[in-house]
Design goal:
Elements lengths: L3 E6 L5 H12 L4 E8 L5 H9 L3 E3 L8 H14 L4 E4 L8 H6 L4 E5 L14 H10 L3 E8 L9 E8 L6 H24 L3 E4 L2 E7 L2 E2 L2
Parallel strand pairs: 1-2, 1-4, 2-3, 4-5
Antiparallel strand pairs: 5-6, 6-7, 8-9, 9-10
Helix pairs in contact: 1-2, 1-6, 5-6
This protein binds 5-O-phosphono-beta-D-ribofuranosylamine (GRF).
């Protein structure tokens, strides 16, 4: 079977990016991370791309007059590289509608909380864990969702939960949640490229095999 071509978008250290590359290798997921795209020339993800021999393209926002031309330029590269799926692994910009529309239901994002709680504009990275800690909730977790044109808004693919009843600070929450991210994000990518997700409105059903429901 042809390997599905995947692009990863990352702005930061890239630990999710690395776990996805490793999962593809160790679990023979029928995909290939063909490209890393980042807005940040200092992203740790760039070193991970170098370590794995994955081509990377940097799009510094200052080089573009507006977000429309920014996303047009990225889309041009995605098409040229015949990318079929997109993974947002700590990507700090809103993906342009031209990209979302072209890759409808083929872009997934990882959010470090149980959406729809603690999501939306401004809720990213450590801010999320601080808000979770301050709220006093007893559980947190991570969410993988389909990307649409709003932050953290698309149908939910996978979630998992962890008790935070005994944590002392937001850092402890971040550590517990990151472990969940590293487990569910690669699994969600597998389901996506194997076309085992049936999306009906806001609900996502995981199929046992392509086109066959679990029960
Ligand atoms: C993760 O916590 C993810 O949930 C959020 O940004 C962080 C990225 O971490 N979107 P890394 O760059 O994958 O280590």
């Amino acid at each position: 079977m042809e390997l599905k071509q995947v692009a990863v978008f990352a702005s930061g250290r890239g630990s999710n990016f690395r776990h996805i590359v490793e999962k593809i290798r160790t679990d023979s997921v029928q995909a290939r991370v063909a490209l890393l795209i980042t807005n940040n020339p200092d992203a740790g993800a760039l070193k991970i791309a170098r370590d794995y021999g994955i081509p990377a393209r940097i799009f510094p926002p200052v080089d573009f007059p507006n977000s429309n031309s920014y996303n047009d330029s990225i889309l041009e590269v995605l098409v040229a590289k015949r990318i079929e799926y997109i993974v947002l692994a700590g990507y700090m910009r809103l993906v342009g509608s031209q990209i979302v529309n072209k890759y409808e239901n083929r872009i997934i994002n990882i959010h470090p909380a149980l959406l729809p709680a603690f999501g939306g504009k401004g809720m990213y990275g450590h801010h999320v864990h601080e808000a979770v800690f301050e709220s006093g909730v007893k559980f947190s977790g991570a969410t993988v969702h389909i990307v649409d044109t709003k932050y953290d808004n698309g149908p939910i693919v996978l979630q998992d939960v962890v008790s935070i009843a005994d944590v002392k600070n937001a850092d402890e929450i971040a550590e517990k949640v990151l472990d969940i991210e590293h487990r569910i994000f690669p699994e969600a990518l597998r389901l996506l490229v194997e076309q085992r997700l049936r999306i009906t409105g806001r609900r996502v059903e995981v199929l046992k095999e392509q086109g066959i429901a679990e029960n």
